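ok so i was messing around last nite and threw this chain in just to see what happens. nothing serious, just curious
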Amino acid sequence: MTQRSHVRRPTLEDVARRSGVSKSTVSRVINGEARVRAEVVDRVRHVISELGYVPNQAARQLVTHRTGAVAVVAAQPENRLFLDPFFDLLLRGIRRELALHGAQAVLLFVEEPDDYARVADYLGGGHVDGAILFSLRPGDRLPEMIDRLALPAVFGGRPLLRDGDTVHRHAYVDGDNRGGARQAVQHLVALGRQRIATVAGPYDQENSAADRLAGYHDVLLDAPAELVERADYTRQGGADAMAALLDRRPDLDAVFAASDLMAAGALQTLRERGRRVPEDVAVVGFDDLASIAESTDPPLTTVHQDVPEMGRLLARLLVRNEAPQPPSVVVPTRLVRRASA
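result:
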């Protein structure tokens, strides 16, 4: 009988030896402690990834009294979430960062009013050490739920203020939505476009839609309402919005869409209406999702934000708990020029 060979799993000692640091330093990096220099953290993490080291979760739980699980709560229908590449990249960044700390993500969805009680019971039942929440809507009960449970939490996107609040009470990570929108519209103005429309995001999102619309108006102070159309961050929504804009203003010569998915839908409608891009209508999106922006016809000029890094920052803020008070990170954006504008 052939003897089965066993591959030895890398140990804490292996990571320490390869990194050139002590075992206690490796432990501090794994546990997210703040007393380690950034360059050492990066080196140890690289070695952990290279060796495929997995911390002994059972031993860590005995010491830390933690579950090793983090709830990722999406106030979004499940089918829509997995159709949007943005969320896939965000979740990928969250999962990778949590893995570096020996933790795993538990994905929860809030679609119907009854879901709030179910999610509250789970979050308050000691199953998770904290929560990452995103896609909240105006008046959402999740922030109050988190406060009531006294559960560590970080929000994806700048949370909406409650009535009477003047500061944000929760940690958050967001992109520079307003600044990115300004870059997009300034680019269209620099191209000489004079009738610039926008496909804005929906009213029922956090602050991203409002901030991107505000960035549009920062550049075009007197833009008429007929050049603004709302949609729902989907491809079909962008197509329908573009049709409505063309019906009202057939003379428009540019459009800024507040997401790449909506920009892809806008391109589809422009093609069906016989408009050449960018000769007749220039198009700029937002997000720079490679699966969309590089595959549209023509390839999409868009505003880049590092979505996986935003996911990593969300997990890092939660695990390390070392951000300023109130903690927040705004990720910069930049314009990526392709053929659509």
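not much to say yet. Residues 199 and 229 are 5 Å apart (CA to CA).
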